[in-house]
Each structure stands twice: as structure tokens, then as C-alpha cells.
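sry for the spam today, last one i promise. C-alpha cells for design, 405 residues
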């Protein structure tokens, strides 16, 4: 946010939640001022008198719900905070104009995400206002240019009239030919004007669609991060190590897909993903989780100028996630040293080859990796089929998976 302090309105009727918010605000030294309203009526009175950079709305209030206040915001971005866990409420709120929503938990962990959520809402509101101003400016320019063109056309018509009067003295054949040429010229000018107008409309429409598409990728990434965070929160209450491992693997699969949407959101080219940077981020997350006790396991990556569209980038990323995760878990027992290599390239016919190799203990001889009971290897097989590709395993000197599609 800017150095200037913003102001937010917190609509909350629960004194315990108010105290928790105030403790958090003091502890974190939040960069905005805030005031409280304890009911729909009180919030209405405040909103009629003052404007806020953002409004936080508790869903259940003593004299109504947050929905009773949606049409009172006066343009301020508002965020719904609910403890009911009802997805329909969240969806309805987003459709009604809410900029985001937070799930309230007893421990107050949702407060940790509150500053970033408020900041994103305020930034988005400002971006929308700037976009509206820019659009109005373009409309003014188009109007001015239209007026100029109309004046030019009027002057041209005067000149054509004077020319026609002079040509009236010529022979009939010359008059007919001149009339034909004038008519053709008028039609051509009209077509040119119409085409320029259509091109301007198409350019504006294309820019709007690109903005909307980036917003879709941004929301998809945010939703996946929320799912990953919910899995992480739930795992705090699980004592079974096997179930905890399953939750952790699910989180990494979700993160691998969320990374795709994040790369597209930040990319200038929304049609494809550059694999090198994406896989570097993906493998870094995996190593950060399994690095404990594995200081002698190194990662090598060889991916240059490989681009994939989102339909192929997501399954490809999940395949790499599963194979690298499998190597980290099983290839280097008891502190064994070694390396993991991820390599990918494409030939002139756009045929892609992905190689994931480790120098670990390798697959047991006689074990068919296509028919294991583990979800990870079964998922790899299904994803290769989705890519309409093939997969081969070489167990000499470790494990080498070669996938072509």
C-alpha cells in the first residue's frame, strides 16, 4: 500500500473477535486505521457519513447478514468474513461484488492473511478505477477524431460539388464516368472508415479480454492456494504419519497446478508457459520439503526454450512433481549420496522428450511401475496417456524415466 495510511471499516458484532483483531493489529502494526461497527444499522449509519478504503464484513450479524450491506458500500471494496464454512455463501458474495472472502477459524489464523487480502482488494479497486478512467479517455479521443473526420468529409463534399459543377460542361460520357468514379470513391471511403472503427473496437475488446483472462488465472491460482492452505491447516490435527504424508503430497500437486496459473498471470504471453522457470520453482518446493537429511542429493536441470500450452503444461508439471517426489522419498535411503536430473527438449517436429533420472537405488527388478499400488505412479501413467505419449523406465545405474509426447 502507499505510505499514506488507509482506513477500513470492520463490521463485527462479536466482542471476542473484535479483541482478537485489535491484538493482531497492534502486534503486526498494520498500515491502516480501522473503526468498528457492531450491527447492520450501525454500519449503515457509518457508511452514509464516511468513505473507506476497504470494508471487512462478518457474515452473521445480530440484526441481519452482510448481504444487507452490499448495496451500501458506495464503491468501497468489501471482503466477506464467514465462519459458517458454507461455500454457497462465499460464491454468492463474490457474484454480488465482494472482492474476496476469508474463512474465520477459532484460533484466528485467518488474521494472518488479512493484511495481504485487504491490500489486494484496495489495489484491485484502484486498478479498476484507473482502467475506467483510461477507457473514458479513449472514448473522448474517439469522439474528437470522429468530429474531425466529419468536418473533413464535409469539406471534401464541398470540393466534390464544385468539381462536379465544372465537369457538367463536359460530354455526357465524361459526366457518367465521373459519377461512377465518385460513387465508387464514396463507398471506398465509407468502407475504410468502418474498417478503422471496427479495428479500434477489436483492439479495445482484445485488451479487455486479456485483462479478464489474467484475472481468471489469478483467481484460479488464489483458489488453489486456499485449498492448499486448508489442507495444511487440517494436517495440524492429524497424528497419523501416513495420512500426513498423503496431505503433503496433495498440497504439492495442487501447488504444481497453481504455479502454472501464476506463471500465465505474470506472463505477457497468455497462450503458453516457459517450462524452465516453472520447473525450477516446482522442484525447489519439493527439495525444501524433503531436504532434511539429504544434503548430498543435488538437482540438475537442463531445459531450454521449451514452451507448452496450459493443457499440456499442467499434466507435464504433475508428472515431474510425482517422479522427483518419488526419487526424493525412495532413491536415497540412509543418507545415500547422488543426484536427480530433469531434462526436457523438443525436436523440429515439436515432439517433446522429458527425462527424469536419479542415481539412487533404482526400482526393484521385476517390479512393473505401471501396476504399482501407489497413487503417484498410477497418476504418472494416466497423465502420460492424457498427453498421448509413451513412457519407458531404465533401471541401470538408478532410475531413468523417458517420456515422449
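last one done:
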Amino acid at each position: 500500500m502507499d505510505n499514506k495510511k488507509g482506513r477500513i471499516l470492520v463490521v463485527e458484532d462479536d466482542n471476542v473477535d473484535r479483541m482478537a483483531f485489535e491484538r493482531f493489529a497492534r502486534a503486526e502494526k498494520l498500515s491502516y486505521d480501522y473503526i468498528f461497527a457492531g450491527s447492520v444499522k450501525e454500519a449503515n449509519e457509518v457508511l452514509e457519513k464516511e468513505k473507506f478504503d476497504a470494508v471487512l464484513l462478518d457474515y452473521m450479524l445480530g440484526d441481519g447478514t452482510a448481504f444487507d450491506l452490499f448495496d451500501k458500500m458506495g464503491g468501497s471494496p468489501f471482503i466477506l468474513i464467514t465462519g459458517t464454512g458454507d461455500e454457497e455463501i462465499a460464491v454468492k458474495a463474490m457474484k454480488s461484488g465482494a472482492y474476496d472472502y476469508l474463512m474465520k477459524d477459532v484460533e484466528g489464523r485467518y488474521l494472518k492473511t488479512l493484511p495481504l487480502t485487504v491490500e489486494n482488494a484496495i489495489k484491485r479497486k484502484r486498478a479498476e478505477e484507473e482502467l475506467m478512467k483510461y477507457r473514458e479517455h479513449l472514448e473522448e479521443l474517439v469522439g474528437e477524431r470522429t468530429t474531425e473526420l466529419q468536418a473533413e468529409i464535409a469539406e471534401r463534399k464541398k470540393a466534390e460539388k464544385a468539381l462536379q459543377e465544372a465537369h457538367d460542361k463536359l460530354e455526357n460520357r465524361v459526366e457518367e464516368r465521373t459519377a461512377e468514379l465518385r460513387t465508387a470513391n464514396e463507398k471506398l471511403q465509407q468502407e475504410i472508415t468502418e474498417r478503422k472503427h471496427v479495428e479500434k473496437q477489436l483492439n479495445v475488446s482484445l485488451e479487455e479480454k486479456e485483462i479478464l483472462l489474467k484475472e481468471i488465472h489469478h483467481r484460479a491460482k488464489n483458489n488453489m492456494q486456499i485449498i492448499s492452505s486448508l489442507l495444511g491447516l487440517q494436517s495440524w490435527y492429524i497424528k497419523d504419519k501416513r495420512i500426513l504424508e498423503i496431505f503433503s503430497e496433495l498440497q504439492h500437486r495442487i501447488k504444481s497446478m497453481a504455479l502454472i496459473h501464476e506463471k500465465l498471470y505474470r506472463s505477457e504471453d497468455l497462450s503458453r508457459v516457459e517450462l524452465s522457470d516453472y520447473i525450477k520453482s516446482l522442484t525447489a518446493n519439493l527439495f525444501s520439503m524433503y531436504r532434511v537429511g539429504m544434503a548430498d542429493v543435488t538437482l540438475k536441470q537442463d531445459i531450454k526454450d521449451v514452451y507448452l500450452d496450459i493443457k499440456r503444461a499442467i499434466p507435464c508439471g504433475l508428472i515431474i512433481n510425482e517422479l522427483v517426489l518419488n526419487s526424493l522419498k525412495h532413491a536415497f535411503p540412509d543418507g545415500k549420496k547422488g543426484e536427480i536430473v530433469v531434462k526436457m527438449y523438443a525436436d523440429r517436429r515439436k515432439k517433446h522428450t522429458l527425462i527424469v533420472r536419479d542415481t539412487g537405488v533404482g526400482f526393484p527388478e521385476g517390479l512393473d511401475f505401471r501396476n504399482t499400488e501407489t497413487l503417484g505412479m498410477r497418476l504418472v501413467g494416466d497423465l502420460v496417456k492424457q498427453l498421448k505419449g509413451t513412457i519407458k523406465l531404465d533401471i541401470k545405474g538408478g532410475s531413468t524415466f523417458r517420456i515422449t509426447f
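The chain has a mean pLDDT of 79. ok im logging off now
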